[in-house]
Amino acid sequence: TGPQAGCATTMALVRQWLAQAQGRHKGLAVLTGAGVSAESGVPTFRDDSTGYWARFRPEDMASEAGYRRDPQHVWRWYEYRRELVRNVQPNAGHLALAHWAQRHPAGMTLITQNVDGLHQKAGSPDVLCLHGELLKNRWLNHRCAQCDLAHPAAGEPPYCPACGNLVRPAVVWFGESLPQGIWAEAEQAAQNCTLMLVVGTSGAVYPAAGLAQIARQAGARVVVINPRPTELDAMAHALLHGPSAELLPQLLC
Ligand code: BV8
Q1: Cα atoms found within 13 Å of the Cα of residue 132, Cβ hemisphere only
Q2: Is residue 188 part of an annotated ligand binding site?
Q3: CA-CA distances (angstroms) from residue 209 to 18, 57, 253?
Q4: Residue 229, CA atoms < 13 Å, CB-side half-sphere
Q5: What one-character DSSP code corresponds to residue 13?
């Protein structure tokens, strides 16, 4: 009795579903969120007092309007996150996903909402980054001839004095559409898989969280892996309660 026993039974059931998915091209789809990086030491967004959004308003920090309002403040937040992410390592959950993909080429699609690059660092191939990449930049507006000559002062976002353009992190902010091609690939993976693992996400952000419903409606089994309840639990076929760095190696290795 108790959740642990339930977890063992559920784990055996999910392993069966995984074995069935293995026989199919892209039979497995995995959607990850900030929780898979928690055990690497990267703060999540909505985890009570430790999450980023507990200290900032998403609209102020992860939106173009917020950036234009106070570029230095937002830029410094992203520089702080970059510094943190550069100094952490993928955890056993990231590695379990990468090793499974290496053992089953074309067997899985890894879709992430994370911008920290830790799946790539762990060796996962072809990661679909729905929300962009923290360590990359792009210009806010179209570049002029002088833009690339801009020399940022430390702690300041690169700024073009000729046209007033600003460099911004190459992430998807609230109110911005996801990269077209990447979203289309993720949607197709959700429609074609027989098993979707939804790992370490609160399921609060759309359209990313909608991929679980797309998979379910297409006939796949949906499994949520998370130590706490999520907004997607109600439509999952199975819930595995626990940290992903513990459960993913148990499930995938
Ligand atoms: C768009 C990048 C339209 C930047 C991010 C009302 C209803 C529904 C939707 C909306 C609405 N109003 C507005 C919207 C749309 C909005 C949205 O969904 N808002 C929500 C908040 C209500 N979405 C958008 O704006 C998207 N764009 O809709 O565009 C459009 C269409 C066409 C043309 C123009 C426009 C863009 C969304 C992308 C925003 N960018 N980040 C950055 O990172 O700085 S969002 C941010 O949230 C991150 O990307 C993050 O990945 C994402 C989701 O959060 P999670 O990953 O789930 O993290 P969270 O902290 O929430 O949860 C962590 C989980 O981990 C928890 O469950 C916890 O229990 C678990 N956990 C903890 N420890 C562990 C663990 N799990 C496993 N193991 C552990 N050890």
Answers
A1: 16
A2: no
A3: 21, 20, 26
A4: 3
A5: H
Question: Is residue 131 among the annotated active site residues?
Answer: yes
The predicted structure's pLDDT at residue 6: 67
The single-letter DSSP state of residue 47 is: S
Confidence grade of residue 188 (pLDDT, cut at 50, 70, 90): very high
* pTM exceeds 0.90: yes
C-alpha–C-alpha distance, residues 249 and 240, integer Å: 13
pLDDT in tens, 46-64: 887 778 888 888 888 999 9
Question: DSSP letter string over 148-205?
Answer: GG--PPTTS--B-TTT--BEEEEEPPTTSPPPHHHHHHHHHHHHH-SEEEEES--S-S
Task: Pick the residue whose CA is nearest to atom 14 on ligand 1.
Answer: 206
Mutate which of 45, 79, 127 for ligand 1? The one with the most ligand atoms within 8 Å of its CB, which is: 45
Report the relative pairing of strands 132-139 and 167-171 from DSSP bridges: antiparallel
Percent of the chain at pLDDT above 90? 84
Rounded Cα distance between 231 and 75, Å, is: 31
Looking from the CA of residue 132, the nearest atom of ligand 1 is 2
What local confidence, expressed as pLDDT, does residue 5 receive? 45
